[in-house]
Amino acid sequence: MSTFEAFEKYDFDNDAQFQSGIASLLNNKQENEDQLLLKAKLFYYSKFFTPIQYDEYIKWKDSEHEPEPTSEREEKPPRFTFQEIVDMIEKGIEIPGIKQIPNIINDGVPSESKMKTRPKPWEIKK
């Protein structure tokens, strides 16, 4: 795993020391909070773990880490108009990208109750 991948997988949300420091920074209402947050994370990670330069990280993220547009297009199902979807439903054609859920209930045998039933309020002897 590269340094950049390790940085991206680090759990900043559950790091109490980082959270206490970033809270004061974000209270100042800076213009670009996302960039400020990224720089703060890089500073913190560089100080306590492995040094990372902001420019190098941005180059890595832009070149190697971003998914290719062609693969992104292949994963998305085609978009249909409302009328096209209505026509597919009327004709019984399967709509791409819709998960088919079988119309059955669990085939397993239900378990037997092992607890004693609670008495009703009028059944309780006082």
Brief sketch in words of this structure:
Residues 104-126 are annotated as: Disordered. This protein has 126 residues and is mainly alpha-helical. It contains six helices and no strands.
**How does the major sheet shape up?**
none
Structural class designation:
mainly alpha
Mean pLDDT: 81
Taking Cα atoms only, what radius of gyration do you get, to the nearest Å?
Answer: 28 Å
Shape: flat
Total number of helices: 6
Are there runs of 5+ residues with pLDDT below 50, and where?
Answer: none
Distance between the termini: 68 Å
SSE order = HHHHHH
Summarize the amount of helix as a percent range.
40-55%
The counted number of beta strands is: 0
What share of residues are in beta strands?
A: under 5%
Oligomeric state of this protein = single chain
How would you describe the overall organization of this protein?
The chain is an all-alpha fold and 126 residues long. The protein has a domain of 64 residues. The chain has six helices and no strands. Helix 2 runs antiparallel to helix 3. The radius of gyration is 28 Å and the shape is flat. The relative contact order is 0.08.
